[in-house]
Amino acid sequence: MLQQPWFHQVNTYLFLGVLLVTVAASAYYVSYFVGQQNHRRDWARRLLLGSLVLQSLYIVSRYFLIGNTPVTTYHETVVFFAWATTAAYFSFRWRYTVRNFGTFVSFLIVLLLIAAAFAPRQVIPLEPPLRSWWLPVHAGFSLIAYGFLGLAFCGGLMYLLQERELKSRRLGYFYSRLPSLDALDQLNSHCLAIGFVFLCLGMVSGSFWSKQAWGTYFRWNPKEVCSLIIWLVYLVQIHLRFTAGWRGRRAAFMVVVGFVVVILTLWRVTT
Amino acid sequence: MGNIPTGRTITLLGVNHKTTPVEIRECLALRGGYEEALTDLKAIAGEVEHYLLSTCNRVELLFVSNGDALLEERLAGFLFGDAILPEDRQRYSYRYVGAEAVNHLFQVASSLDSLVVGEAQILGQIKEAYRHAAAHQCTGPLLNKLLHKSFSVAKRVRSETGIGSAAVSISSAAVGLAKKIFGRLEEKQVLLIGAGEMAELAAEHLIGQGIGGVMVANRTVERAVELAGRFHGRACSLDDLITQLREVDIVISSTGAAGLILREEEVRPLMRSRRNRPLFFIDIAVPRDLDPALNDIDNVFLYDIDDLSQVVEGNRAEREKEAVTARQIIDEETHKFCRWQEGLAVTPTIAALRRKADDICRRELARTLPKLELNEGDRQRIERLAQSIASKMLYDPLQFLKSPSCRQGDTAKIDMVRTVFGLENNGVSDDDDTSVDPA
Predict the structure, then answer these.
(1) Has this prediction a pTM greater than 0.80?
(2) Chain centre to alpha carbon of residue B71
(3) pLDDT digits (tens, 9 = 90+) for B384-428
(4) What's the complex ipTM?
(5) CA-CA distance, A156 to A255, in Å (whole number)?
(6) Residues of A whose CB is below 8 A from B179
(7) Nearest to B181 among A166, A171, A244 (CB)
(8) Which of B181, B184, B307 is closest, CB to CB, to A181?
(9) Do B182 and A180 touch (CB under 8 A)?
(10) CA–CA separation, B53 and B25 (whole Å)
(11) Is B155 in the A-facing interface, judged by CB distances under 8 Å?
(12) pLDDT tens, B4-34?
């Protein structure tokens, strides 16, 4: 543990850096969205990649500060969530591009980081029974799942915006800027599928952790019940999509609702 | 090039999407194609230069006459037939004469008068109409010049203004929408219901984007088979419509049916068996073929012709700016063409005057030169002297003829020149070269 004041200061400045760079990336993405000039998007990408690096450094520094994986306080969880979303975005972008997706995702990341900025940042020592290598595994899986579900949420919002313009038959601001409905729908199903796999892994590892810490797989405490609800919400979506052919507006709406549930539980449970 | 008769005016009669409802325009559209119409027209117009354009948005007849009201009446009778009664012509059709006709033609060719300003199809349609007219020897020197000019004006407008850059015709607007719904169009299937001209156009556009396959459903199966053959697609009867809807992705409907041919309650149950794959309906029929309530079904998108026009309207403001520049070009070119045409009124007189002077020189030289014993150099000098005197004598009369008042066809002044120089005996309509620009 590095508890020296100078390290606290380094830690604080790192977070400030993360915040500034991400806001700058998002601002560039928004200006690209408005003006559609490619060089702005290139800068936005570079800045967001810089933000990912800084976020990683911040999480590592936080690890050295508190001595265990920094996913126990609200601040740490939300930062890790933002990191997972950013990383998921880049892993996704590496495979294929979706027009103006970055604008929405960077906006979500900025919102998460701002939420983290307002949360208290003091170091709270972890209760001894919870100290286990299951902690990083469980939290890692769950937050990566949330990252992908966050991407699906952005895709769902974009779908709903684009669909509304197409249905209303008055094509406006978003029509030319957003990708096709098909691309957005595929993005949703892709992110949902990956997110759900990680969600399952998170659930399983969580119950093993619970077994190790408390001697039982499921304790029916609010946090666990909420996780179960989230898991069921997404299970239903996956089921409907892959068996009943649910897609389009309803599917996008469900993805958005699912993510709102995720955010609400995260906020209720960790504060 | 033959001689262009002077004192002829260019007249344009026509209807377009702005003046005439679609039901009436439909009746005017050439059923038998250009061949038949031009043969009939030729019987009426005879030697008068004429040219006929027919597209889904307009029917226009251009002809050159010397103000023969009877001929115009007969041509109008042919053009409008029973579809527009003589008393309604004022309301539905337009008639432009002279510079206005030229200006209108240039506007049409430059796509300023199109339903979708800036779309490029119209120039091709004009060229095709001209090809037919030329093949039937309907056009003469004046219309040939005018139509070729209209092509170059259109080209100039396109290259000097941004009017074509955002050009979205109805069918390319439909393609744009299809792309926003389906992403890639490669594996998508199109169903054409009814085999109208617009449907064909839209289908061509989609095929240009690499669509997967085409299916044609029509009341008369022969026509369906014929059209399907053109697109390497399949034909089916209208009774199979619902079955086909399970397979296709884009439906373009353009039948002449009086009522709806596809209702919401017929399509809704299909979505389940389609596993909610999106369906894009384009209704370009008037009256409409498709139930407006189709749009309320999830994953179904319905656009009719008005919606598509509205989509296209979105770009209008930008293009309106370019249209102003385009109109300036057109006005300028109209002015140039009219000056050229005005010049034609004095050209024969100028030519006759020059010819008369040349004749006199030649005659007098032929009489005098043999009597003199000159070497070659001196002989040439004498010839040049004679020509120089003649042209100096002609300088002022020619300037007079080229003055604006004569150019604009003041026949009294031209006649005076002709009388003073005794040109009436020398035939006016000899085969002089009228392509010489009198300016």
Answers:
(1) no
(2) 22
(3) 999 899 889 888 888 888 877 776 666 777 788 888 888 765 444
(4) 0.87
(5) 6
(6) 180
(7) A166
(8) B181
(9) yes
(10) 13
(11) no
(12) 444 678 899 998 877 777 667 766 766 667 8
